[in-house]
């Protein structure tokens, strides 16, 4: 799924950095902090460590728009309380997801 989403975002003019663990997310963010405008937290990372990532990222750069995608609706309140800018319940089409990210970026 990451490859499909990356492709769709790339077709819409985004540069994507893919990560597979919370630790990799934080390291990659530090390496590219000046280039990151939006972050999509998806899948297992969202379920296991999403709140921690949100807090750490927002502390370093509060302007980053964070969109969490999960199949667990009960996580919505928690991640929004921790600072996520949007929560999307799966399933969602790649086009709809791209539009939600674009909407968040327009709110800067």
Bin the strand percentage: 5-15%
> Helicity range of the residues?
40-55%
CATH class annotation: Alpha Beta
What characterizes the major β-sheet? 3 strands, parallel
Coarse morphology:
globular
Mean pLDDT: 89
Number of beta strands = 3
Structural class: alpha/beta
- Give me the number of helical elements: 5
Q: What spatial order of strands do you see in the largest sheet?
A: 1-2-3
What name is given to the CATH topology?
Rossmann fold
Distance between the termini: 28 Å
CATH superfamily: Response regulator
CATH architectural arrangement: 3-Layer(aba) Sandwich
Unreliable stretches (pLDDT < 50, length at least 5) are none
Give the number of domains: 1
Summarize the helix and strand pattern as letters. HHEHEHEH
Taking all Cα atoms into account, the compactness measure Rg is 13 Å
Structure description:
- It is a single chain.
- With 108 residues, the chain is of the alpha/beta class.
- It has a single domain, classed as Response regulator (Rossmann fold, 3-Layer(aba) Sandwich), CATH 3.40.50.2300.
- Helices cover 53% and strands 14% of the residues.
- It has five helices and three strands, in the order ααβαβαβα.
- Strands 1-2-3 form a three-stranded parallel β-sheet, with helices on both faces.
- α4 links the parallel β2 and β3 (86-89).
- It is globular and about 30 Å long.
- It starts with a helix and ends with a helix.
